Description:
By secondary structure, the chain is mainly alpha-helical. 81% of the residues lie in helices and 0% in strands. The longest helix is centred in the last third of the chain and has 35 residues, at 202-236. The protein starts with 7 loop residues before the first helix and ends with a helix.
Amino acid sequence: MWHYSMEAEQISRVFVAGGCVFGIGSLCYYGLGMSGEVGAIDKAKFWPAEVRQRVSTTYGYFVSGLAVTAAAAYGAMRTEAVMRFLVNRPFLSLGVFLVGTIGSSMVCQATPYTAAAMPLKLGSFAVFSSVMGATLAPLILMAGPIAVRAATYTAGVVGALTLTAACAPSERYLYMSGPLSVGLGVVLVASIGGMIASPVSAVGAGLHAVYMYGGLVLFGGFVLYDTQRIINGAEKSHTYDPVNMSIGIYLDTINLFVRILMLMMGSGNRRK
């Protein structure tokens, strides 16, 4: 049996605190000029209006996507037929989730960011965010008030890491693309393996640890990478698409939220 030395919620708090300390430390290191390099946030004051608008629009879509997801989750929890479908037909609902999210995401990213195509682009983005929210509804319903605390913790982590990436030189974390892709593959394999292996076995518990704790570190790294990808793209790209650029950090946030929530739920169940 795999033994954990800390309670799940304690680990969540340590991760949140670590992310905040990392952000504040980086702010001091880069913001006070101790690194000897110019940070992205230092260059922001010299950004032309177009770059400022690109960055602010991207984060506007990011927040809007989260708001649609929250509204869809709330609506699904209030609709008996939807909850019955999600709970009683898990494999079919998984198929609907995969088709809905992958399909709408592909349509959204393939649609150009032009005035003529805006209804289709924003519509597919709304479908993507709504399906994500509806799929999360059973988990949030089971969590109850814990979901609010998990969302708060997630906001703290994402905010701290975003600040870290903004204070660092604008290409400092872009090199992480390769390692992050490898890590994503490892977490995906652990997720699939965890469905097959017995959860009470050492292998099953180990795979679960990789999926949960490795996923926390992985998607924390993705927040750093995607934040600087947004800044770099806003500064240098000739055809910048704020909707597409917001999807990356949106998915990072959702994945962090789900893991923090599951850890906190596991801690609460053990106390009972």
